[in-house]
């Protein structure tokens, strides 16, 4: 398959491109959701021995969702810089230790989004968290023990991946 044309057909908060793809002599039109690159982290407070997640309203499921801290990378940011910023904005913590778990394409059939998922250890808060007022974020912090975390019925893919990763580490 080869992309022979790309046109931006929607340029709002998110972007959508229309691609013309050539394959075996046929041309196919496909839409591609272009949100940008993102970061996410499962955060563990080593002082209090709890995992700190977020609960917030999400447009996709049209309801509140329990998930790991996450956000979009700003232009020129590295994934590590972005995840440190997002953890501070959403949870109010500074990172002591950061480990990359995986870089994923959560929906490669229709989206160019790439998410770098981390595990972060923290021990001290330097802010309130809850998100940025100017971005109209309304983020609730949720603290869970390991047992409560693995018992939680999670529905967010990046969160499921991070929790499965920590479960595997606990078993070894």
What can be said about the biggest beta sheet?
Answer: 7 strands, mixed
Shape: elongated
- Cα distance spanning the termini: 42 Å
Number of helices: 3
Task: Estimate percent helicity.
Answer: 10-25%
Structural class: alpha+beta
Rounded to an integer in angstroms, the radius of gyration calculated over CA atoms is 18 Å
| Percent of residues in β-strands | over 45%
Number of DSSP-assigned strands: 10
- Low-pLDDT residue intervals, each spanning 5 or more residues: none
Q: N-to-C SSE series?
A: EEEEEEEHEEEHH
Mean pLDDT: 94
Descriptive report:
- The protein has three helices and ten strands; from the N terminus they run βββββββαβββαα.
- The chain is of the alpha+beta class and 172 residues long.
- A hairpin with a 4-residue loop joins strand 5 and strand 6 (63-67).
- It is elongated and about 60 Å long.
Characterize this entry briefly.
The protein is an alpha+beta fold and 172 residues long. It has helices at residues 79-91, 146-151, 157-171, and strands at residues 2-11, 15-23, 26-34, 37-45, 50-58, 63-67, 69-72, 93-104, 114-125, 140-144.
Question: What's the SSE blueprint?
Answer:
Elements: E1 2-11, E2 15-23, E3 26-34, E4 37-45, E5 50-58, E6 63-67, E7 69-72, H1 79-91, E8 93-104, E9 114-125, E10 140-144, H2 146-151, H3 157-171
Parallel strand pairs: 4-9
Antiparallel strand pairs: 1-2, 2-3, 4-5, 4-7, 5-6, 5-10, 8-9
Output the keywords.
172 residues, alpha+beta, seven-stranded mixed beta sheet, 20% helix, 49% strand
């Amino acid at each position: 398959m080869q992309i022979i044309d790309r046109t931006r057909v929607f340029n709002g908060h998110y972007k959508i491109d229309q691609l013309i793809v050539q394959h075996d002599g046929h041309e196919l039109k496909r839409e591609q959701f272009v949100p940008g690159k993102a970061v996410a982290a499962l955060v563990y407070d080593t002082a209090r021995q709890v995992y700190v997640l977020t609960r917030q309203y999400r447009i996709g499921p049209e309801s509140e969702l329990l998930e790991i801290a996450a956000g979009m990378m700003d232009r020129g940011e590295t994934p590590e810089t972005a995840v440190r910023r997002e953890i501070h904005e959403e949870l109010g913590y500074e990172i002591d230790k950061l480990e990359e778990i995986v870089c994923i394409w959560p929906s490669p059939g229709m989206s160019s989004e790439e998410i770098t998922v981390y595990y972060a250890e923290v021990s001290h808060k330097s802010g309130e968290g809850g998100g940025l007022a100017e971005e109209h974020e309304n983020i609730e912090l949720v603290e869970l023990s390991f047992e409560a975390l693995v018992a939680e019925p999670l529905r967010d893919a990046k969160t499921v991946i991070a929790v499965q990763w920590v479960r595997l580490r606990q078993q070894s």
